[in-house]
From TrEMBL:
<dbReference type="InterPro" id="IPR024370">
    <property type="entry name" value="PBP_domain"/>
</dbReference>
<feature type="domain" description="PBP">
    <location>
        <begin position="27"/>
        <end position="210"/>
    </location>
</feature>
<dbReference type="Pfam" id="PF12727">
    <property type="entry name" value="PBP_like"/>
</dbReference>
<protein>
    <submittedName>
        <fullName>Excisionase</fullName>
    </submittedName>
</protein>
Amino acid sequence: PQHTLQLSGSHDFLVEQLVKYIVSEGTGLSITPSYIGSLEGLMMLYRGSADLAAVHLLDPASQQYNLPFIRQLFVHEPITVMRLASRDQGLIVAKGNPKNIREVKDLARNDVTIVNRQKGAGTRFLLDSFLAKENLEPSALKGYENEEWTHLGAAAHISRGTADAAFGIRCAASQLGLDFIPLTKEQFDLVFRWTPQNKASMEHLIDLIQLTNFKDSISGLDGYDAAEFGKIIYGNDRLGA
């Protein structure tokens, strides 16, 4: 039987599609996702309790995504990093943007309440780096301590009117018919950690991503750019390859 792949890391619609695709196409692969945020996902991979991780982590010093963290953690372990997509990140606000929120510093206004993502989420890192650029303290934002674990969970607060803004991806805003103010494009990658046990399954998974029509499922996702989809952007020696 195939090794069941454990996927940890960021919650993302593309990753959800991938998990569904693997099941529905009868690929014989088995994959169990746990959406615990980019940082925690990478740490699980580092500790050997996951086979692959989905990450989007901005390194503020280099303004690079993912690789600075990955290079630091995985010195000896055989890994491969694959670019999945770049995603539009920005502010999710109510339809018609009634509070006229335009940029991050508007989140500190008295009449604005936000909903945040959990500690360790790549989206929260991104919000924090924007706050630092504006010299804003998190305590200046009403609702900063209100945490949600997924993009849709955060966006749902805007729909219900329990918050005025959330930092998140365009796709979540589109799915709930909300407005979106784009602020940046971020890189979303998959990190594979090779072991003798998972090698066959991981090679199978990489083939599925690169060689099948799975890529077509991205075209239905708003705010994703798949120009570099499936491209290997970093690797140290693959196990026995």
